[in-house]
Amino acid sequence: MQSVPAKRLATRLRQFMKDTGTTQNQAAAALHMSQSAFSRRYLGHVELRASEVAALASLLGIEVTDLYGDSAVSA
């Protein structure tokens, strides 16, 4: 079962990827994984690791916090 934060993060990721024209294949290559493995993260079925979120933010030209949006917790 996918968690609410994973689904929310995946939704924001999909929107940023759409906005930038980034494909799943490009994102998978940036994460050094198969498109199939990335797809599970893209759909929110598997939670993204912090290092993966950082790599995706860099690929998309955004800040990590942009991917977390309103769900980000400040320390």
Automatic annotation (TrEMBL):
<dbReference type="InterPro" id="IPR001387">
    <property type="entry name" value="Cro/C1-type_HTH"/>
</dbReference>
<dbReference type="Pfam" id="PF13560">
    <property type="entry name" value="HTH_31"/>
</dbReference>
<feature type="domain" description="HTH cro/C1-type">
    <location>
        <begin position="13"/>
        <end position="67"/>
    </location>
</feature>
<dbReference type="GO" id="GO:0003677">
    <property type="term" value="F:DNA binding"/>
</dbReference>
<dbReference type="InterPro" id="IPR010982">
    <property type="entry name" value="Lambda_DNA-bd_dom_sf"/>
</dbReference>
<protein>
    <submittedName>
        <fullName>XRE family transcriptional regulator</fullName>
    </submittedName>
</protein>
